[in-house]
Amino acid sequence: MPDTMTSLSEHQELALQADYKEYARVLRRGGDVPAHLELVAETRFRAWKVAANCGHPCGQVLYGECLSEGIHARRDTDTAADIFEEAAAELVDAMWLIGECYLDGAGVERDRKMALAWYAKAVEMDHPPSEYSLGLMHYEGHAVKPNAMEAAEWFLRSANHGYIPAMYKLGKMLIAGDEVKHDYEFAIQCYTKAAEGGFAKAQYALGMWHRDPLLGTPNDREAMRWLKEAARMGNADAMFQIGCMHWNGAGMAIDELTGANWYAQAAKQGHAEAAYRVGILFRDGKVVRKNLLEAHKWLEVASSKGHKDAKRALREIIVT
């Protein structure tokens, strides 16, 4: 391996370290790594490639991630896996990445035992994504016997290290009593931390919690606040629920037009029930001008996702 200190200038080294530090921050909190890399790679991709070719582990991870995701380069999981395995000699994030490759069979033959081994090595350094991945292995029974309690312990450890998806997963297990004791209070704490960290699924779950009369007095204002946060992150389920709240007047005056607009936004994201409702609105000319072509289009979207009522409605529509 080339001597990276002679291969990169001091300025290049400092810039690369800064890039990697920010990447690691996003990764280790469970942020949107592809979106982050897509943005930064606009100006830094060539520098990462040069550093990777020099054998610099930080450059290898950043360049390998771009190859793995097809960011500013043709997707090449084989090369990415090779790069991650080499960088894993020095960087804990690379240990997790090569573990993910073995888990998914991306660039290497699928081997869940190898994935488990890499995660186990990384958790010795308190790596939050690896702790979460180990939790999933125990939860789903990959390379180990399914063990929800063991999984919950790994999710808790990962959550305590700031990994947002682990906070959500742990909260979900506690709400469901999924082989662990119900603990609604701690579950909501987990959801809230994940939601405040920008995790859309947690924002949606928290919004729905505030709408559920079985879990306490409904709070439509809090429900709407969290559902809108989730919708802003692109969560189609949240868009649909906001539509329902406007349509039914949950905590507000009935507003069918606004409800229909939210249904349309969810439908555009592929939400089956929302697409069905938009199709019916166009079929019946309610809130919108009657348009059988639009009705057919949206009912077809819902039908393609297995919506039975949409399939029946399609058979009744005659488009001329």
Structure explained in plain terms:
The structure is a single chain. By secondary structure, the chain is mainly alpha-helical. α16 runs antiparallel to α17. Among the domains are: 1-109, Alpha Horseshoe (Serine Threonine Protein Phosphatase 5, Tetratricopeptide repeat); 126-197, Tetratricopeptide repeat domain (Serine Threonine Protein Phosphatase 5, Tetratricopeptide repeat, Alpha Horseshoe), CATH 1.25.40.10. It is globular and about 70 Å long. The termini are far apart. The chain has helices spanning 4-7, 10-29, 33-53, 57-69, 77-87, 92-104, 112-123, 128-140, 148-160, 164-176, 184-196, 200-209, 220-232, 236-248, 256-268, 272-284, 292-304, 308-316. Mean pLDDT is 94; it is low at 1-6. The chain is built from 18 helices and no strands.
Question: Helical element count?
Answer: 18
Shape: globular
Structural class assignment:
mainly alpha
Write down the secondary-structure element order: HHHHHHHHHHHHHHHHHH
CATH class of the domain at 1-109: Mainly Alpha
Mind telling me the C-alpha Rg? 24 Å
The largest sheet is: none
Mean pLDDT: 94
The low-pLDDT segments are 1-6
Helix content percent band? over 70%
CATH architecture label name of the domain at 1-109: Alpha Horseshoe
Q: Could you tell me the number of beta strands? A: 0
Strand content: under 5%
Task: Report how far the terminal alpha carbons are from each other.
Answer: 68 Å
- The CATH topology of the domain at 1-109 corresponds to Serine Threonine Protein Phosphatase 5, Tetratricopeptide repeat
